[in-house]
Amino acid sequence: MTFASGSASCNVPVYILPDNIPELTEKFTARLLKVDLVDGDIGNPNFSPRLGGIVSADVYIAANQDPNGVFAIYSADPLALSGGQMILVEQKPSYSVQLVIERSGELYLPIFLKVLSQNIVLVT
User: Fold this and answer.
1) 55 with 80: CB under 8 angstroms?
2) Which of 19, 47, 85, 109 pairs with 99 at a CA distance of 20 to 30 A?
3) How does strand 100-104 pair with strand 70-74?
4) pLDDT at 91 over 60
5) What is the pLDDT of residues 36-46, one digit of tens each?
6) DSSP string computed for the chain
């Protein structure tokens, strides 16, 4: 980058190329390593460029396209109502209901699910 004569600051454009790949948040660091005088009197102390106190910046690219996937939980039971969102069951000891957990979108990251039954409504 080149500063115009007499300028104290300069913008550095960083172009992020778009894609359709689900990704987690990414980070990179942009750092100024040195400064050189291009024109002017090199021996003159008024023309001695130097790096300031802030010489680096962290750039974060936010997670996109559902990097962990999109989940749907439903019952495939033929007696299920509302597109599998509701199923009526009898209250019996050791009664089980089979649910389908469907993951779409990104599939390469491991996901651990914990199922709690505290919000189940029993119909007797």
Assistant:
1) no
2) 109
3) antiparallel
4) yes
5) 877 766 667 66
6) --PPTT-S------PPPP-S--B--EEEEEE-------SS-TT-GGG-----S--EEEEEE--BS-TT-EEEEE---TT-BGGGTB------TT-----EEEEES--SS--------TTPPP--
Q: Cβ(102)–Cβ(72) under 8 Å? A: yes
With 0-12 CB in 10 A as exposed, 13-18 as middle and 19+ as buried, what is 74?
A: middle
**Which pLDDT score, from 0 to 100, does residue 123 have?**
46
Q: Do residues 93 and 51 touch, judged by C-beta distance below 8 A?
A: no
Spatial contact of 108 and 69, defined as CB atoms under 8 Å apart: no
Please enumerate in sequence order all residues whose Cβ is within 8 A of that of 11, keeping only pairs 6 or more positions apart, or say none: none
- Token digits of residue 58: 């962290």
